[in-house]
Specification:
With 400 residues, the chain is an alpha/beta fold. The protein contains 9 helices and 15 strands. The strands form 3 sheets. Strands 1-2-4-3-5-8-6-7 form an 8-stranded mixed beta sheet, sandwiched between helices. A 4-stranded antiparallel beta sheet has the order 12-11-14-15. Strands 9-10-13 form a 3-stranded antiparallel beta sheet, with no helix packed on it.
Length: 400
């Protein structure tokens, strides 16, 4: 497409999007701004570290089922209840992980990233940026929407795709099934390699990969506006990587898609050195915020975007675990009146820490944690909650 034609298309496109949304150009919604502020660097860092620590996530490695189940557990821990392992086809043992927040309309929004990784040494492919960073963004957006009790108009699918490195296998299978079923996917928001930034350059540029077609180009224009409105990022429209990530599968199936990609060349791409220590997680978190802002703008096109109120505790509290005594599992519930850095640990009677259940920032509200005591001996133990200035300890009993 010639530059002048593209410019005219984008100008027309943004007009159609703002006609739909009823927003004045340049205005922002304080509710959306508040909602995206719940995205935290620490939870994304934890997800990236955990995925990296598998050592490899190559599509055909023997740990592929373990990786997929881990992603599923993270969605469940984020508060989503409809989370499935979706096989690519009959007889396949490769799966996408699909978590769903059901909406009130037939339209859908897909938020996705691939969980497999690659390096020439297939047994050492930690893939922190490619693409643990993208999966971390998908999980974090799901966590935020679940935590704040968001009621969606569109059904939102959070998908972690398999087989991207083999040729977009997971996303191709999913997009084709959606097309065959006649499903109305309004937009596919994709993340791939969003964790690296050359901090020496001092900019916050991010590639925004866009696709052809009036609706797809309008989506890219709206995304550009939303990113600038709600974040510190500078979106750079880009085309060179269109066919190199999972958004391509949706675009070629007739769905509008847009794809966030780190702007700076990553020196450890597809190597055993693709590690968390080289990433700027704050940059990745800002990308996640920008995508969440776009999702909310799409899902609630007028200023009626609202939070469904949840009861917020007035004081911090650590409840007695239940059941107690237990074998092998029990549930520990705690309450926070405000966002805090939380550490919940289990100790033996000699004061030795035997398990760390939580060690991250958590939002205000009521939280539950499962503790599996199958690997510790019978006896009396203590669990301690530290959250800001609050500290409380209770006793639990493992009984075989």
């Amino acid at each position: 497409m010639k530059p002048l034609i593209l410019l005219l298309t984008l100008i027309i496109g943004v007009g159609s999007w703002f006609s739909e949304t009823g927003r004045a150009q340049g205005s922002s919604d304080p509710v959306i701004a508040e909602m995206i502020s719940h995205v935290t660097d620490s939870t994304m860092r934890q997800s990236i570290a955990s995925l990296q620590n598998f050592g490899t996530r190559y599509t055909f490695e023997s740990n592929r089922d373990t990786v997929a189940r881990w992603v599923r557990e993270r969605f469940l821990a984020a508060g989503l209840t409809d989370v499935v392992l979706d096989t690519l086809s009959s007889g396949s043992d490769l799966v996408n992980v699909v978590a769903t927040i059901h909406g009130t309309s037939e339209s859908e929004i897909v938020v996705g990233a691939h969980y497999d990784s690659y390096s020439p040494n297939l047994g050492i492919a930690p893939g922190a940026d490619d693409n643990a960073s993208g999966v971390a963004a998908v999980i974090e957006i799901a966590r935020v929407l679940s935590t704040i009790g968001y009621t969606s108009a569109s059904t939102i699918r959070f998908i972690s795709f398999t087989g991207e490195e083999q040729g977009l296998w997971g996303s191709s299978a999913y997009a084709q099934k959606a097309k065959d079923a006649g499903r109305h996917i309004r937009a596919m928001l994709n993340f791939d390699m969003i964790g690296y930034r050359d901090v020496a350059q001092g900019d916050m540029d991010v590639y925004l990969v866009w696709y052809l077609g009036a609706e797809a180009e309008s989506l890219a224009t709206l995304a550009t506006t939303v990113i600038r409105r709600y974040t510190t990022l500078n979106p750079v429209l880009y085309t060179n990587s269109r066919a190199r990530s999972d958004s391509w599968s949706f675009a070629t199936s007739g769905y509008s898609a847009v794809f966030w990609l780190g702007n700076d060349a990553y020196p450890f791409y597809h190597t055993p050195y693709d590690l968390l220590q080289y990433l700027d997680v704050a940059y990745a978190a800002e990308i996640a915020r920008s995508a969440l802002a776009l999702l909310l703008t799409l899902d609630k096109p007028t200023t009626d975007v609202h939070l469904v109120a949840k009861t917020v505790p007035t004081v911090a509290r650590l409840d007695q675990n239940y059941p107690n005594p237990f074998n092998p599992g029990t549930t520990i519930k705690y309450e926070l009146p405000k966002l805090a850095v939380v550490r919940l640990s289990v100790f033996d009677i000699l004061g030795r820490e035997v398990s760390v259940l939580v060690n991250e920032r958590r939002d205000a509200g009521v939280h539950e944690v499962k503790f599996d005591g199958s690997k510790i001996a019978s006896g009396v133990y203590f669990y301690r909650l530290r959250a800001g200035d609050f500290e409380q300890t209770r006793k639990l009993v493992v009984l075989r």
